[in-house]
Amino acid sequence: MTSTQATEPRETAQQARNSYRAVLIFPILVLAGGVLGYVLAEPLSGTGHLINPGLGVIMFIMGLTLKPVDFALVAKKPVPVFLVVAAQYILMPLVAVLVCWIMQLPPELAAGVILVGSVPGGTASNVVAYLARGDVALSVTATSVSTILAPVATPLLTLWLAGQYLPVDAAGMAMSIVQVVLVPVLGGLIVRLLFPKVVKIAMPVLPWLATLAIAAVVAIVVAGSADLVLEAGLLVFGAVILHNTLALLLGYGIGIVTRQSISRRRTIAIEIAMQQSGLAAGLAAQYMNPLSALPGAVFSVWQNMAGAIFAAWCRRRDRIAAEQQDVTAEVS
């Protein structure tokens, strides 16, 4: 048991149930958005122009949850932050390429999977890191840094790795990321600095507002390619599960190889495996092909389910370790 874990207060049973309920409800709401988009495909088919505003709302809410102190870890402990962000933008895209090769995906789906692997870490990773008893401060900092780097990293990686499948407008994609990611995040951060009391009052509802916005974006994306969902659904779902699972395992392995603490191993795995997939779906719908947006939409649902499972596994390991420690203490 690490020193961090040793000093961490134990959650009550009610707190644990509330935590699991929160992380499980997120994918259910997003899944409901996808189903709604499919069922109401015709009336929603003309709402594609709302994708970017929806993404902007999500990023603004992310900015509201940030504080300048969240970036202090970069100066205090740069190595783990660099490790997570580097793996985020190196390992995840390369795993996406591997998945495309293994499954022999058609060009449109391959480009979408690679785009999912090239976007920054998702904000839900911070919640899952907490549930898994990971290093939450590292998770928040790494997500923030990868988001700031996204206007440069995401278009270049997509152009390099997905350009062989479909034409990629890297410049246009970079400008869109600045508009729907960087500007809203900075705006949210500034609003929190100017009106901290108001933001504090609104804080409990912000995750739910972000989830509803993600569900709305997924609904619009699915509506735009509803006629292709049944045809490509199983293939996309298989690619998403393989992509996410490999990233989770390899991320945890990186933590072991680099001799990180258990809490940081968990955080590295979570950060690498959980993406801003709503952003990927929106960018794919705008700059690629309706079919290319499906991996991002499906990933939005699956990553939260996988995160809940991983968090449960981590907590079970902690419980077993604690029980063994108690038995050892009684024997001695």
UniProtKB/TrEMBL annotation:
Topology in the lipid bilayer: Multi-pass membrane protein
Top-level taxon: Bacteria
Any one cellular-component term (Gene Ontology): membrane
UniProtKB keywords: Membrane, Transmembrane, Transmembrane helix
TM segment ranges: 20-41, 53-74, 81-104, 110-131, 138-161, 173-194, 206-226, 232-256
Signal sequence coordinates: none
Name this protein carries in UniProt: Na+-dependent transporter
